[in-house]
Amino acid sequence: MSALWSANELVAATGGRPFGPAGPNVTGISIDTRTLKPGDAFFAIKGDQFDGHDYATAAIKAGASLLVVAEGKLPALGRLKASMIVVSDVLEALGRAGAAARARTRAKVIAVTGSAGKTITKEALRHVLSSVGTVHAADKSFNNHWGVPLTLARTPQDCDFAIFEIGMNHPGEIRPLVKLVRPHIAIITLIAEAHLGFFDSLDEIARAKAEIFEGIEPDGYAILNRDDPRTRLLGKLAREANVPHVVGFGENPKAHFKLIDCNLSGDSSAITAKIGGREVRAIIGAPGRHVVQNTLAVLGAAYLAGANLDKVATALATLSAEKGRGKRHLLPHSEGVVALIDESYNANPTSVRAALNLLGSTPVNGSGRRIAVLGDMLELGTQSAKLHAAIAGDIASAGVDMVYLAGPEMGALAGALPEGFPVVHRQTTAELSGLLTAEVRPGDAIMLKSSLRMGFARLVDALIDHFPAQATPSKRV
Prior knowledge:
Blueprint: H1 7-14, E1 17-19, E2 28-30, E3 40-43, H2 56-61, E4 66-70, H3 74-77, E5 84-87, H4 90-104, E6 108-113, H5 118-129, E7 135-137, H6 147-153, E8 161-165, H7 174-181, E9 185-188, H8 202-209, E10 221-225, H9 231-240, E11 245-250, E12 257-264, E13 269-275, E14 278-284, H10 289-304, H11 309-315, E15 327-333, E16 336-343, H12 349-360, E17 370-375, H13 384-389, H14 391-397, E18 402-406, H15 411-416, E19 423-426, H16 430-439, E20 445-449, H17 457-466, E21 470-471
Parallel strand pairs: 2-3, 3-4, 4-5, 6-8, 6-9, 7-8, 9-10, 10-11, 11-12, 16-20, 17-18, 17-20, 18-19
Antiparallel strand pairs: 1-5, 12-13, 13-14, 15-16, 15-21
């Protein structure tokens, strides 16, 4: 594998000093010995629960080419026979390495934020742009104060496109990250009630997301959702941040990247969109109206990045949903098949509505039912009960036949459902597992959605284990 950094380059980038044997070239960057690959430089970050310095020996055994360690930890590590770079603060050094990687790459850089759809959009960009060039993006949602610098530090010098997801749950968190990323193109997917417990209003969430404008490169672009009620506010904030080009996507007549026609089915969508003054037709391999909306932003960003739109549109046909974000399984029942939609990664009111719409468009067979399994939507603050109860209307609109609920917050939704509607409510996720496996029958379509801390991935695993899964044909996103 070719070198990502020479030892001397990494010393200069981090502002540290070499210690121990001369360091070899570095082929990757790691902060976790469980996923470290031989040749990686191991940055010994100290987190809330773990201190990377405690895993220095494990990193060497795993094949780390060198260690990046804090000056204050050196006395305890000095006897290790390993190449080291000594810095004052390891996380800050990772940020400096990220900034140096950004400065030297020739890639067109795209950043994505929003209350929902960040990862789907990032992965869709990775997928379609891979059809026209080399792409760098994190494999996971590395969108926080260590994930973004880590992804930046891993950026190859010679890639064509680099894509970054930037998240937040408090004001001020996006600003330092986007100033590292310095995108040519920045997308805000949607403003919604996610993390509302930390904000006074949706306008305040919009203002926090708008921090992404502060890092856009001169002559860069902000891409906004023209169907979002807060587009006008975001546009005003973009202009205040001196973003030279503000464009929109959606069904709105004023959208630059406009949806003209859309046909949804259970496992895909067919769209016609106007992109760059021309009509583009595409089949999107991942289902859902929300995926269509995000795809408009993807097509717009690809156009602005100079990608071949014909190749990009063709690549959308092999797009597929990821684990926890709409991935589908066909579970073999003794008397038929059960369709499982895994939306377990996270939840807010907007993404729950999108998941319910997806369930509503999923066909059932024979006497099969549409079953929604929903867990608490966390971090909604004083509006939590109201927002949970409001989901009742979306359940009815989606044609859901039965609901399983987990968590104390979901009590508000249970109370808002019509009298006699089939609903099972339990206080914990664990209490639902046996009930679900016993209840599911052939022809059913079942969708699971909750905030991450509710642990709904365990319910997905329980169903797959109970009915050995045959995953739908894999299409790399």
